[in-house]
Sequence to fold (140 residues):
Amino acid sequence: MAFTIPESHCDLIDGPHWAALTTLMPDGSPQTTPIWCNADHEHILINTMRGFRKEKNLRRNPCVTLLIYDPRNPQRHIEIRGLAVEMTEDGALEHLDQLTQLYLGRPDAHFFGDCVPLDEQARHVPVKITIQPTSVRVEG
Fold:
């Protein structure tokens, strides 16, 4: 069953609002990281780097929770529980640049060079993660 994001809270996902992403560590304990995100028509899209903790956690256990709140009114928020249904390097750098442009508010921005030093690109490989919501809860 697909869950849709209520129109009243789509602006929180389409940013530029930071989200708290929670994944599960190998021992079952939660691990939470602030991230950037956006959405297509059915899924939440996030990005990480190959070998980072959240990527390792999601490859082992695809369950996630995202919490995004309105900084002007923290009682207005959305919690999305879901499953990472795809993790790919294909198109990941382009997606990361789209997020960078959104969050920096600059249509010419690139993650490598504008957010982190350009030489980091030789050491890190972006991974685009597609999350299928299984539960959506909104407040405010």
